[in-house]
Amino acid sequence: MTDKFIVLDPTLEVETPHVERAPRPVQIHTIGLLDNGKQNSDKLLRKLADMLVTQQPDLKINYYRKQGAYRPAPATLLDKVAAECDAALVGIGD
Q1: Which of 75, 86, 74, 71 is nearest to 37 (CA)?
Q2: Cα Dmax for the chain
Q3: pLDDT tens-digit series, residues 39-81
Q4: How far apart are CA 35 and CA 44, in angstroms?
Q5: Which of 15, 55, 76, 87 has a 20 to 30 A CA-CA distance from 27?
Q6: By C-alpha distance, which of 40, 84, 79, 78 is closest to 62?
Q7: Ramachandran region, residue 54 (left: φ > 0; alpha: ψ -120 to 50; beta: rest)
Q8: How many CB atoms lie within 10 A of CB 33?
Q9: Helix (H) or strand (E) holding 43
């Protein structure tokens, strides 16, 4: 009887589509802050907003929040952020 040793490879090669990055805006007049729903992410983003306005008083800041940290943001919310803002940041917490 011959002993066999079987090796399984748990890795998976996934093909992902190439997505071009959005061009950087020349100027930022409105920035969106997207709270991802984790604990303390709102505090982080509010502090960041205060710092940004101190450095750039004319900057308009829009604040958004998604339903929960473990769900992706709905496309409608992302579309709204993209339409209303020149740039956006997502805050994480904990």
Answers
A1: 71
A2: 80
A3: 888 888 999 999 999 999 999 999 999 888 888 889 999 999 9
A4: 9
A5: 76
A6: 84
A7: alpha
A8: 23
A9: helix 41-55
pTM attached to this predicted model:
0.72
Contact between residue 61 and residue 8 where contact means Cβ atoms under 8 Å apart: no
Backbone angles phi, psi at 41, to 5 degrees: -65, -30
Alpha-carbon gap, residue 85 to 72, rounded angstroms: 19
- Residue type at 43? K
Give residue for tokens 């101190």: 54
33: Cβ contacts below 8 Å, ≥ 6 apart: 45, 48, 49, 61, 62, 63, 64, 88, 89, 91
